[in-house]
Amino acid sequence: MREPSFQSAEGCSCKGFLLAVRDRLLRHGVVVVAALALPMLVPHAVSHLPSLPALASAGDDASRSGATIEPDAAAPFIPQRPAQTILVNRGDTIAALAASFHADAAAMRWANQIPEGVEPRAGSALLVPPGPGALVRVDRGERPSTFAARLGLDPRVILDYNALRSDAVLSQGSYLQVPAAAAGPDGIAAQWVVPNVDGLPAIPATQYQHGGSSNAGFPWGQCTYYVSTRRKVDWNGDAWLWFRNARGAGRPEGRVPVAGAIVVMWGSWVGHVAYVEKVNPDGSFLISEMNVRGVGVLDERTVTVSSIDLIGFIY
Questions:
Q1: Which residues contact 242 (CB under 8 A, 6 or more apart)?
Q2: Are residues 148 and 53 in the same domain?
Q3: Among 106, 113, 151, 297, whose CB has the most other CB atoms within 10 angstroms?
Q4: Is the confidence at residue 66, as pLDDT, over 50?
Q5: Is residue 155 part of a domain?
Q6: What is the total count of domains within the chain?
Q7: Per mean pLDDT, which range of 62-71, 132-141, 231-240, 282-291 is the poorest?
Q8: Residues 47, 196: one domain?
Q9: Is residue 148 in some structural domain?
Q10: Degrees, nearest 5: CA angle 133-194-244
Q11: What residues make up the domain containing 249?
Q12: How far is 62 from 250, CA to CA, in rounded Å?
């Protein structure tokens, strides 16, 4: 079998990552090829053919089963099952496949960069990560191998959570998925957000508001009123209380800007809220807001986390 070719890379981490990529492609690719050939060899092909790790016995060691090799002692311990690659059948959905393989649907969607509202194509190979994931922003000039090194992860963990084929330089401001336990404060839980058409985190469509305010408790022209016309707001209170009150209403919160998120900050003694229109590659983000330049006056400005008195983001 001919091995895939890769871009050259310098440094042990890059070489190790390339070997891990080759191992993943060979190990999982063989299964996909075999699955495609099965209909010609047997009368009835199995519904879904998992990759070799899924077929390994519980007593096999990590190298035989394809399980993620444990990182060094300084890295977080992540006890999970091995990643799998499956073949998608007609009519399969992310939700149904996740239930079938006892996997995390959000982690599957992010691993394969499948936007919200889109389902995997029949006949395609789908990576099933070992467990729940979180998203971490890529720094300028970073490769998957250097990204893994920055987070103190074995590069093979990155391959378990992202369908990658090389160690090429990634786009600044893009995101890679890591195990939920390894993300740290700079991560966003994969289940909180969805990939948009550019593969960047966005708020799920169910949380947007269309036509008027979603909460009659906010007076017209205030910052709280405006944001409630963009997002569904199932809580009350002054702006500074939103971060706490949203949590009580079941909305996730964090400190990472995401398109469509509500940003809660100080700005007056009652606080201030605004709507995140988009996040730029350098980490700055464009917000729209009301009642900064006057009651009912709408404006936009580009800010950073460090340039405002941030309380947090509501996803």
A1: 224, 235, 262, 264, 271, 273, 314
A2: yes
A3: 106
A4: no
A5: yes
A6: 2
A7: 62-71
A8: yes
A9: yes
A10: 80
A11: 205-314
A12: 39
Tens digits of residue pLDDT in 111-134: 999 999 999 999 999 999 999 999
Q: If you ran DSSP here, which 8-state letter would residue 207 be given?
A: G
Please name the residue that has the structure tokens 């191998």. Answer: 145
CB atoms within 10 A of CB 114: 19
Residue 4 domain-assigned?
no
**What is the rounded end-to-end Cα distance, in angstroms, of the chain?**
47
* Residue 129, Cβ density class (10 Å: 0-12 exposed, 13-18 middle, ≥19 buried): buried
Instruction: Give buried/exposed letters for 8-17 (b at 16+ CB in 10 A, else e).
Output: ebeeebbebb
User: Looking at 147, 178, 200, which one is the last position of a domain?
Assistant: 200
Residue 118 within a domain: yes
Q: Which residues contact 278 (CB under 8 A, 6 or more apart)?
A: 259, 285, 286
- 152: nearest Cα among 74, 62, 68, 70: 74
**41, 190: one domain:** yes
Which range is most confident: 41-45, 187-191, 266-270?
A: 187-191
Contacts of 42 by beta carbon, 8 Å cutoff, 6+ apart: none
Nearest to 220 by CA among 300, 290, 288: 290
Question: CA–CA distance from 242 to each of 68, 72, 176, 293, 303 (Å)?
Answer: 40, 41, 29, 21, 20
Measure the CA–CA gap between 30 and 37, rounded to whole angstroms.
11
CA distance 232 to 235: 9
Q: Which of 227, 174, 231 is nearest to 198 (CA)?
A: 174
Joined tokens for residue 262: 């509500």
Least confident of 37-46, 47-56, 63-72, 290-299: 37-46
In this model, does residue 261 exceed pLDDT 60? Answer: yes
Read off the DSSP letter of residue 29: H
What CA dihedral angle connects 288, 244, 175 and 280, to 10 degrees? 20
